[in-house]
Amino acid sequence: MGSFRTLKDFFIKHKWRYLLGIFWLIIVDIVQLIVPQILRTVTDLLEVEQLTSSSLIKYAVYIVLTGLVIGLGRYYWRIYIMGTSYELEYYIRNKLFRHLQTLSTNYFNKNKTGDLMAHGTEDINRIRMALGPGIVMITDAIFMTIAALIMMIYTTNIRLAVMAIIPLPFLALTIGKFGKVIFKRSKLVQESFSDLSDNAQENFSGIRVVKSFVQEEREIKKFTKSNKQNFKANMHLIKIHGLFEPIVRFISSLSYLIVIWYGGTLVIRGTISLGDFVAFISYLGLLVWPMMAIGFVINILQRGAASMDRINKIMAEKPEIYDHEDVINKKSIEGEIEFRNVSFKYPESIEYALKDISFKVPKGSTLGIVGRTGSGKTTIITLLLRLYEIEEGEILVDGVNVSKIPLKTLRENIGYVSQDNFLFSTSIKDNISFAFEDEIKNEQIYEAAKISQVYDNIIEFPQKFDTSLGERGVTLSGGQRQRTALARAIIKNPDILILDDSLSAVDTQTEEKILDNLEKVMKNRTNMLIAHRISTVKNSDQIIVFDEGKIVERGIHEELIEKKGLYNDIYNKQLLEEKISNK
Ligand SMILES: Nc1ncnc2c1ncn2[C@@H]1O[C@H](COP(=O)(O)OP(=O)(O)OP(=O)(O)O)[C@@H](O)[C@H]1O
Ligand SMILES: [Mg+2]
Predict the structure, then answer these.
(1) 266 φ, ψ to 5°?
(2) Which of these, 324, 521, 329, 489, lies nearest to 414 by C-alpha position?
(3) Nearest C-alpha to atom 28 of ligand 1 is from which residue?
């Protein structure tokens, strides 16, 4: 149970609630133990025909009163123990999410989203089960078992008590075993259901592809197969569920059998009274649940501990990228960028993505980067943003190694339009103003949208800037997405602006307009333009050409054309393509 040690602070803070909960739990148990004593007295009085109707009412009122106290007590322990366990769930989930936000992008490459989701839901749920219902069951099992046994011996004799409880440990054992099998099978049900919903989800989001490739029939077959799997898993589970109750009833009825046979003999012999007999049977009834609880609780605690271990493991995960001790106090960025002999290999990759890269971008100038797909252009940016740590070479911003610049300063002052143009499922307005925590002026948003030439598109939507994107909203065209992502970066007014293939989905005319607009924005800042189209970079102060992770050419447009190398090849091909498409 050592795994739960990480929750010490939470327990210390909420110890009173747990203690109060346990207090009420025990009160309920004690009152439950009184009830058979009332039954015993009533039966004994009935037998000797001494029960008057007024005393009958008195005992009836006692029973009602015990019912009230039991009800009240159950309400309170539920609030105190179960309620606190839900608060624990809330606490762990928040802590986990906060921690995950500190981990580097590489962590999210290595761990599947589905797994992380499972940790955040199932694992946390199991921890709650262990520390809510689990605590209730343990307390109940220990206290009730001991107390009911004492009461049994007290009302009758030790021999009857021992004989009656002989079958009960088997009850605990069987339930423990059954619990394991049930858990395994319900897990299979869960898994097959999540397969099924993944299947449907992917189909719905890819419905255009499915329809255009006329693959509905195959999709139906795939879905039916997955649905059948789920049905089978459910049948598998229900079979064991069906066996569960009869077995529990059978084992506990063995106890009753012993009591009726042996206890009955004792009554006939006059060793115990009929009231004792009735009370004893009631106590036996009270013992069945704690015995079942012992069976359940061992599994619940084991699973909870295993889940806690998994969560602890994630929480112990150190962020790969963080501010080191030698970080300098730097709040702003001028904008000079330099790569010095940088070579880089992605973790878990054998090939170098970058080989001995050196270049310098003076403050306020524009660097164009071109090169074939997969040649390492995006990698340059991920390293500049310190999404990965480098081991060979140096990356300097304003002459300072990026590992010495506070991450916040570095990233806040770089406006990066990434190649995938990821937009969130909120309004266009919220997407563009993503970098700002507080609300900003609409004019600023409009201005950014105008520069990136997406303003006219947006105001054509009925809800304009409040239009929702994503699943429940409109779908933007590829070019509109790019330009919205561009507006999101421009509005930050960053010292370094980086466009990674951000104009590829717009036509050359729109591109020209955007570049014209950007000229004002790009003035006085450092810019990096990554592109496949020469037209995007041709006016840059400096252009570097990448091939297989190496810089193969550098210079300005005219110089590179004269070199008649890779750049010239790409340029001529594009000219040719343009001519063909204009015909
Ligand atoms: N996270 C990653 N893990 C491992 N390898 C990666 C990762 N990201 C990129 N690579 C590899 O690194 C090389 C360079 O990729 P990069 O994304 O920098 O290319 P690019 O020049 O931007 O290409 P494109 O023009 O298609 O965007 C490729 O071989 C790619 O497969
Ligand atoms: Mg790229």
Answers:
(1) -65, -35
(2) 489
(3) 374
| Share above pLDDT 90 across residues of the chain, in percent, rounded to a whole number | 21
CB of 375 sitting under 6 A from ligand 1:
yes
Query: Does residue 319 line the site of ligand 1, with CB under 6 A?
Result: no
Atom number of ligand 1 nearest to Cα 419: 27
Return phi, psi of residue 440, to 5°: -120, 170
**Atom number in ligand 1 closest to CA 376:** 18
Alpha helices in 119-259 (DSSP H): 124-131, 133-155, 158-165, 168-205, 207-212, 216-258
pLDDT of 505 higher than 80 = no
- Protein residues placing their CB within 5 Å of the ion ligand 2: 378, 419
The tokens describing 514, both together, are 């955007």
Per-residue pLDDT tens digits for 256-274:
898 889 988 988 998 888 8
Is there an atom of ligand 1 within 6 Å of 373 CB? yes
Q: Is 379 in the pocket of ligand 1 (CB under 6 A)?
A: yes
350 touches ligand 1 (CB under 6 Å): no
Q: What is the dihedral of CA 120, 125, 131, 133, to 10 degrees?
A: 170
Output the pLDDT for position 128: 93
Which of 550, 547, 575 minimizes the C-alpha distance to 561?
A: 575
pLDDT tens digits for range 280-334: 888 888 888 888 888 888 888 888 888 898 899 999 988 888 788 888 887 888 8
The answer on pLDDT for 474 being more than 80 is: no
- DSSP label of 318: P
Query: What's the helix, strand, coil split of the chain in %, to 5?
Result: 65, 10, 25
What's the CA gap between 522 and 376, in Å, rounded?
Answer: 24
Which residue did the predictor score with more confidence, 472 or 236? 236
Which is the closest atom of ligand 1 to the Cα of 382? 18
**Closest atom of ligand 1 relative to the 109 alpha carbon:** 1
Q: Which ligand is nearest to the CA of 417?
A: 2
In angstroms, the CA 176 to CA 301 distance is: 12
Read off the pLDDT band of 582 (50, 70, 90): low
Q: Is 221 exposed, middle or buried (0-12, 13-18, 19+ CB in 10 A)?
A: exposed
Are 116 and 97 in contact by the 8 Å Cβ rule? The answer is no
Which of 106, 109, 339, 349 is the best mutation target for the ligand 1 pocket, counting ligand atoms within 8 Å of the beta carbon and taking the most?
349
pLDDT number for residue 583: 61
Query: How many angstroms does the Cα of residue 422 sit away from the middle of ligand 1?
Result: 17
Torsion sign across C-alpha atoms 100, 105, 111, 114: positive
